[in-house]
Amino acid sequence: MSLPIEVEAVVIGGGIVGASAALFLAKSGRRVVLLERDFFGAHSSGVNYGGVRRQGRPLSQLPLSQRAHAIWGDLTNLIGIDGEYLRSGHLKLARSDKDMAALAAYEQASRGFGLDLQLLDREQLRARFPWAGDVAVGASLCADDGHANPRIVSPAFAHAARRAGADVYEQAAVSEVSHDGHAFTVRAAGGQTFRAPWLLNCAGAWAAALAEQFGEPVPMRSGHPAMLVTEPLPMFMDVSTGVEGGGIYARQVARGNCVLGGGQGFALDPATARPGQAAILDILRNAVELYPPLAGAQAIRTWSGTEGYLPDREPVLGVSSTQPGLLHGFGFAGSGFQIGPAAGEALAQIVCTGAPSIRLDAFSIQRFQPISQPALPTAPPATAAPAHAENVIPLFRGRSQP
Amino acid sequence: MKLSGIVIIGAGPAGIRAAQTLVAYGLQPCLIDESLRGGGQIYRRQPENFKRSAKALYGFEASKAQAVHATLDRLQADIDYRPQTLVWNAEAQSLDTLHDGVADQLPYTHLIVATGATDRILPVPGWTLPGVYSLGAAQIALKFQGCAIGERVVFAGSGPLLYLVAYQYAKAGAKVAAVLDSSPLSAQTRALPALLGQPATLAKGLYYRGWLTAHGVPVHQGVHLQSIQGEQRVRSVRWRQGEQERTLDCDAVAFAHALRSETQLADLLGCAFSWSDLNRAWLPTRDTSGRSSVEGVYLAGDGAGIMGADAAEMAGELAALTLLSDTGHQVDAARSTALQHRLDAIHRFRHGLETAFPFPEDWAANAPDTLTVCRCEEVSAGEIRQTVEQGHWEINRVKAMCRVGMGRCQGRMCGMAATEIVAHASGRDIASVGRLRGQAPIKPIPFGVEVDQ
Fold first, then answer.
1. Which of the residues B98, B295, B395, B447 would you substitute to probe the A interface, choosing the one with the greatest number of A C-beta atoms within 10 Å?
2. Fewer CB under 10 Å: which end of chain B, C or N?
3. Which pLDDT band holds residue A369 (cuts at 50, 70, 90)?
């Protein structure tokens, strides 16, 4: 075996969080290695819906999300491509007065974070977005939110990291990690070994194993969004949309294709997933009442991915509570695309300055290790997921609906 | 008879013989087919009110075609036959179907996948002009609707279908301007020993060729089709033979380089794939008895490797016998063995055909940067090469980056050509570039679909 390569930080996971961390570290002049088991952005960072949205996030995430918003605003300078990023607005539709009240409550609560939400009643909604279906009674608009193409944005972060001086590797699964009291030793496929005082665990849905190795088991489970895309259609909407209470979300790209998501898929194996049969049919049947121009359009492709969810749907982001030098950034519950660059930047700041510029207390891994209780079991109990995530299908090969 | 939980997908020669075999053992399979009337592609039936004779439609194959059709007609009372039904997705124990705008789910215990083939397309400049068809499509227009694709037609590409379709057009009264075969005559001479293993098939091939020449149809070999020209539609083709370049006026072109297997359903079912040098493609793995790698899923016909209609009939029967045997039925083992031997012989013949009509390995090198490879997403050979230059070489990855194969056909038409470009541009072996992953729906499905529940 060759001698280990000495660097300052090793980042495990070439998704948008890990690649951003590597990019910001390299830009700060740090010697950093980025290791990706598959291809950069091949998993949830690259196959997600592509929403670049602050609206609707828990208030706890809004400071970080606002920082991400600024980073996205400078995307082309940062990664060298525009990534089809559009500040088109994000429109959250309400299908009942109760849902509209929930949107109003969110607008109230999120004031002061700078989202500038605009509540639209039925007439205002129709006036500005004439395509909206009759079932929509109103909406909340975040005019500066938008959408981008995750397939090209997420890999571009890794390529930008390379250009900034990071050593980046694809097809480089990590086979072994150890710490000798001074530094981490990380062995990757291809036989290369790296030694570094900092290790960043950005391994997405697969990050729990490393956390557990260092005595910090987390009850993470995998979710698999059901996604589909239509053939190109005449342009009818430029905003990215969602629905209060969940269900369907949709955007139309410049080429005319509509990208829609809703419901869950299932895992084929630990690395690949597919939308469930029922989820696809639900989208095809239910989307038209919200988006009438879709009537008769053809869906040409479906896909899914593998996303890490923690029971409270908040990520784990920050320092390890057991191992100095170890940082975690994972578990973004299917909404890490927008916030990912700011999460990566925060991890880089910990390495460079000892502390992030935005407080990360809400995302501490310690929240899963109450002092009075022993460590949680590694397999999450069936009841661990909150009600709105109960359609998350466990890892098995089979039908999506029992 | 009992409803068996056995579903056969595809009512071509393989699917029909599989159904017949299961019925003979007292089982009632479900037979699903996308087309209006069964028979598959090569034995495609004309609409019921069309009255051309079998001889006129199928030539030498008339008796085989009639036998397959008659078998399906006889079986209909004994099976759950579902024509005009698309299987657009599959999971373990359940298929997703679409019939007349209504989506349904069909449970199964065992599957025989007989999804057939489409043309293997190697694009040339101008191939998206109106008036350009694949060979198979040109044949369907003639066989099903009694239409020719033009009044002065050039047939180009390679493979047995090239001569067959040109012959059928000429026989039906169309003007065949020329047959442009990319394979050199020397290749066909070299292949003769292997082709002699199936003398009847060889004789038919030679007959079509001889008939065309005798009737004054120019047949050129070793031809490189350079471009199809025209503004609103096809006006001419430009081609090169050795040092000589020529232009030929025409108003339609039919082209393809042999066939490619339709493997998406096997992929969605989780079947293992292996590389086939003979087919120059990744194919679902099947054992000599027709089993896939997935328990309960059997493969028959051209969907798991191109062998032709005769082999498809045998493979359909064999897969059904294997399924019966696997589920505890007493079957005639000698019959299975005999079918395997006959399939082996056809397989050797297939090697001969591949020698006679070799894949034009210089296609990717000669494809200009401006050539549209993916017509759904309008992705050019140059854009694919740029993506490779950025370090991408795995075909799904290249698709993610430049959209090739991402459109309406999901790579069924362009995926093979894109793979050739990627392999050539990256200097990699064609097999190592990988294959486009199957993603539902296999063919587009509409919003607002009704769901039968």
1. B447
2. C
3. confident
Rounded mean pLDDT, B226-233? 96
Q: Tell how strand B219-221 and strand B175-181 pair up.
A: parallel
Looking at residue A371, its pLDDT comes to 57
Q: Are residues B186 and B302 located together in one domain of the fold?
A: no
Residue A161 inside a domain? The answer is yes
Residue A195 lies in domain: 5-49+151-218+311-378
Cβ <8 Å between B439 and A268: no
- Is residue A207 one of the residues assigned to a domain? yes
Q: Could you tell me which chain B residue has the CA closest to the CA of A150?
A: B400
Question: Whose CA is closest to B44, among B78, B22, B16?
Answer: B16
A163-201 pLDDT per residue, tens: 999 999 999 999 999 999 999 999 999 889 999 999 999
Is residue A384 assigned to a domain? no
pTM: 0.92
**Closest Cα of chain A to B399: distance in Å?**
10
**Total of domains in chain B:** 3
The residue written with tokens 């062995």 in the block is A187
Task: Quote the CA–CA distance of A324 and B252 in Å, as a whole number.
Answer: 72
Q: What is the pLDDT of residues B364-385, one digit of tens each?
A: 999 999 999 999 999 999 999 9
Interface contact flag, A300 B441, Cβ < 8 Å: yes
* Arithmetic mean of pLDDT, A297-319: 96
Q: Domain containing B157: what range?
A: 121-257
Domains identified in chain A, total number:
1
Residue to substitute from A258, A284, A288, A397, interface B, most B β-carbons within 10 A:
A284
Helices (H), A145-276: 150-163, 208-213
